[in-house]
Design brief:
The chain is an alpha/beta fold. It has 2 domains: 135 residues, Rossmann fold (3-Layer(aba) Sandwich); 200 residues, Rossmann fold. 39% of the residues lie in helices and 17% in strands. It contains 12 helices and 13 strands. α1 packs across α12, α4 packs across α5 and α9 runs antiparallel to α10. The chain starts with a strand and ends in a 5-residue tail after the last helix. 49% of the residues are buried. It binds 1,4-dihydronicotinamide adenine dinucleotide (NAI).
């Protein structure tokens, strides 16, 4: 017997999130599932976005995360020119060692068919390939499937790489990485693939992580990488600083200590507030908006839904276009003297505020 309940959440008490199309609270008492699915905007097409599996102190924190992340997905879809709208799933994971993750994911996957509209979802923080396989067994709206496009990290790394090329070309007149110092914070899925792409270009790599196994793996695969303490990597002199760990990296405390010329990385929500974008602009540091740089992952998972089936060639060429998008954003930022983040947001809004048939 199903113990599933799906209820609409009134988000009027969160004025910053008043533009969401639908916000749903999903509960299944049998498995212990408690989740939020926020659908921000579907003007460009059906809802798409990852599902996060995370232990939150308060239910409201999870709701806020789903609201914030789903809105960002709408911007990312529009910038990446994929025909989807932004959404996000957030599952409130039990404390470590408690609960049955497979049962929770099974209940979540079954609930996806009950939303009344498609929500294409896949890996985000806290989900791995095994988890995607569980979801896939019980839902036909799972993307980033191991036997199709695979986990999106390597595609996010490729888009960061092209975004870096665009930024370098605009700042120095050449997209060459030869001899450039590139500092990467976070040597996880995206960071390690980014190292592999950059190593072939003659760039000098500097890396940091807080997990010793990640550092060992980086040193084994890329023996020339210089490892530094993760607490100070943002203060190292570099041509490009690439945040590939967690968000909220730049604020009034960290920005004055930066000694880089370009910021371009995969981590979501790098700026703590919009004012931080202005501060970077005033400091003469070229910031490539996070959701522009990391859109490769989305491009790959969205391609799994292409009517003609997944094409790696198409994914690669769509990701390559990010370099042009970055150059266009920087050009406008210089011309109009406004931070790159604001230029990207305006471009995205222009695209998703139109209604598509
Ligand atoms: P991951 O979890 O595989 O790697 C993150 C790495 O950062 C881990 O090795 C972790 O130990 C390290 N880390 C965490 N805190 C740190 C700190 N304070 N200092 C140094 N290292 C630290 O995650 P993944 O997939 O590589 O993603 C990286 C970032 O990019 C995340 O913010 C993610 O949300 C974002 N992103 C990932 C995409 C993907 O397809 N995987 C797509 C778009 C964005």
């Amino acid at each position: 017997m199903s113990n599933l309940s799906i209820t609409s959440v009134d988000v009027n008490t969160f004025p910053e999130f008043d533009t969401h199309k639908r916000v749903l609270r999903i509960e299944d008492s049998a498995s212990g599932l408690l989740a939020f699915i926020s659908i921000h905007n579907t003007n460009r097409g059906p809802a798409i976005g990852g599902t996060r599996y995370w232990h939150y102190q308060k239910e409201e924190d999870a709701l806020r995360d789903s609201l914030r992340l789903s809105r960002a997905m709408t911007y990312k879809c529009a910038i990446a020119e994929v025909s989807f709208g932004g959404a996000k799933g957030v599952i409130l994971a039990p404390k470590d060692g408690e609960g049955d993750k497979d049962a929770i994911l099974t209940a979540y996957a079954k609930a996806l068919a009950e939303l009344g509209e498609p929500f294409y979802t896949g890996e985000d923080v806290g989900l791995n390939e095994h988890d995607i396989q569980i979801l896939e067994q019980h839902s036909n709206t799972i993307v980033g499937r191991p036997k199709v496009g695979g986990l999106p990290a390597r595609w996010a790394a490729l888009s960061v790489f092209y975004a870096m090329e665009g930024a370098l070309a605009m700042q120095t007149g050449s997209a060459s990485f030869e001899g450039k110092k590139i500092a990467i914070k976070g040597l996880g899925g995206v960071g390690i693939d980014l190292c592999a792409l950059l190593e072939k270009t003659g760039a000098k790599l500097i890396g940091a992580d807080i997990v010793p196994e990640r550092i060992e793996r980086a040193l084994k695969n890329h023996p020339t990488i210089e490892i530094v303490d993760s607490a100070i990597i943002h203060t190292i002199e570099s041509d490009i600083y690439s945040p590939c760990a967690m968000g909220n990296e730049f604020n009034k405390d960290t920005i004055p200590n930066l000694k880089t010329k370009i910021i371009c990385g995969a981590a979501n929500n790098q700026l703590t507030t919009q004012e931080d974008g202005q501060a970077l602009f005033e400091a003469g540091i070229l910031y490539v908006p996070d959701y522009v740089a990391n859109a490769g992952g989305l491009i790959s998972v969205a391609d799994e839904l292409h009517p003609l089936g997944y094409s790696q060639e198409r994914v690669e060429s769509d990701i390559k276009r990010i370099r042009n998008t970055v150059e266009k954003i920087i050009e406008t930022s210089i011309r109009d003297s406004i931070p790159t983040g604001e230029v990207a947001d305006a471009l995205a809004e222009e695209r998703f505020q139109k209604t598509y048939d």
